[in-house]
Q: What sequence folds into this?
């Protein structure tokens, strides 16, 4: 058997998530049929390299073997004597981490199991997961899995809304309800988490001496497909299953989507956006993306939570908005703290948009996600007055007179703004709701 095949089989036998040196050594002995002197050091190096980490891929173990000094010497010295004595052809099985064992996740141990769980044929599963990126090569929009809408950011740059078509959206909702929603989010995360909201996001920062707000740049496309697949391997799913689950939750965008550049858009930013979204990433618009982003950013949240605690500060996150607040001690060190937090974000694969960084002391309006937090949670007075005037004029002159931006769903737009006010202040919300209900809408 060629040496490359021996390495591949040995790597497969070691790829069990096992972290006990004796058991790793025993598997090597069974595979090679002999207790080579270099096998125990190899088992120790393997456990040191992969224990406490995401279950590695087969190719990662192969690379480990190729670079292990002792194994390289053995291959050189005993190249004609090392062969596969027994192929440990065990079926793939769930190998969750210690925490994941308590999350009641569905047992899916093969591609066939995943197809059956999603009520698909294996061919349909491969088509929707699109691990080979064929959808990115198809010019016919009818054969692509997403609808696209390009929005220009007020701060510059673009945001691409990627809405999955109905069949793929149903599959993503199944993954969300059956897997992702069963995993608890970090205590600092408040976006897209049940029983949490922008109210709970802002609440810990009310009445603090200083508030630091950071913004993560290009949040959803920052998560590459490999990182999403690693998340599912961490949950215990075998490599083939994890790759397909990751494929169902990620997307790469065909260049034809970027064929027409708005005149007000900078050419360089347009080009950078096209490159960013061409890579497989979390699509903003898929039902699974917020939950996957929260879980994949767990290490970031742990590190920032620990940093804030060491500085006597509170930390919360709502999607790409990071908030830190504290009293006098934190106020004196906030600039240095901001640099440390940005460095941690960079180490974890995120970039802070420094143009949006804000340090807000008690002398100015402290606000998060549209909520003022200086003394208590409230809304900007000017925004409330403007909304009340708009509703009053809708009652007097009709809603068409106030839809100056020609919004296609103006009624829903107003109702959403009122709902936001009601969430923060029920008293003010009731007054606005009465005005809204007095509006006469054309049928």
A:
């Amino acid at each position: 058997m060629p040496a490359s095949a021996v390495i591949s089989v040995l790597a497969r036998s070691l790829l069990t998530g096992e972290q006990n040196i004796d058991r790793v050594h025993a598997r090597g002995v069974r595979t090679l049929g002999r207790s080579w002197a270099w096998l125990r050091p190899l088992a120790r190096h393997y456990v040191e390299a992969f224990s406490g980490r995401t279950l590695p891929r087969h190719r990662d173990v192969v690379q480990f073997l190729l670079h292990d000094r002792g194994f390289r010497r053995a291959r050189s010295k005993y190249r004609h004597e090392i062969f596969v004595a027994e192929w440990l052809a065990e079926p793939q099985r769930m190998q969750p981490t210690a925490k994941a064992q308590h999350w009641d996740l569905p047992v899916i141990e093969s591609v066939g199991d995943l197809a059956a769980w999603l009520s698909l044929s294996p061919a349909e599963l491969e088509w929707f997961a699109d691990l080979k990126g064929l959808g990115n090569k198809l010019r016919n929009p009818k054969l692509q899995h997403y609808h696209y809408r390009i929005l220009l950011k007020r701060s510059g740059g673009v945001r691409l809304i990627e809405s999955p078509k109905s069949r793929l959206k149903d599959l993503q909702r199944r993954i969300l309800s059956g897997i992702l929603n069963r995993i608890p989010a970090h205590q600092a995360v408040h976006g897209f988490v049940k029983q949490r909201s922008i109210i709970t996001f802002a609440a810990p920062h009310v009445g603090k001496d200083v508030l630091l707000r950071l913004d993560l740049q290009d949040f959803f496309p920052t998560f590459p497909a490999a990182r999403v697949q690693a998340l599912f391997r961490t949950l215990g799913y075998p490599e083939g299953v994890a790759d397909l689950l990751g494929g169902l939750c990620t997307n790469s965008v065909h260049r034809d989507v970027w064929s027409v550049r708005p005149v007000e858009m900078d050419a360089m930013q347009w080009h950078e956006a096209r490159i960013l979204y061409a890579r497989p990433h979390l699509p903003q618009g898929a039902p699974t993306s917020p939950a996957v982003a929260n879980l994949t950013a767990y290490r970031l949240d742990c590190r920032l939570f620990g940093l804030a605690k060491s500085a006597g500060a509170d930390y919360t996150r709502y999607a790409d908005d990071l908030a830190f607040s504290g009293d006098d001690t934190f106020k004196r060190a906030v600039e240095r703290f901001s640099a440390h937090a940005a460095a941690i974000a960079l180490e974890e694969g995120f970039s802070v948009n420094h143009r949006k960084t804000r340090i807000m002391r008690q002398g100015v309006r402290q606000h998060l996600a549209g909520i003022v937090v200086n003394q208590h949670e409230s809304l900007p007075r000017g925004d409330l007055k403007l909304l009340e005037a708009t509703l009053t004029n809708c009652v007097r002159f009709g809603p068409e007179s106030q839809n100056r931006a020609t919004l296609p769903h103006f009624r829903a737009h107003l109702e959403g703004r009122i709902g936001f006010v009601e969430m923060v202040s029920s008293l003010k919300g009731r007054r606005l709701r009465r005005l809204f209900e007095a509006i006469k809408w054309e049928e």
Summary: The first strand starts at residue 146 and ends at 152. The radius of gyration is 27 Å. The chain has a mean pLDDT of 90. The longest helix spans residues 328-347.
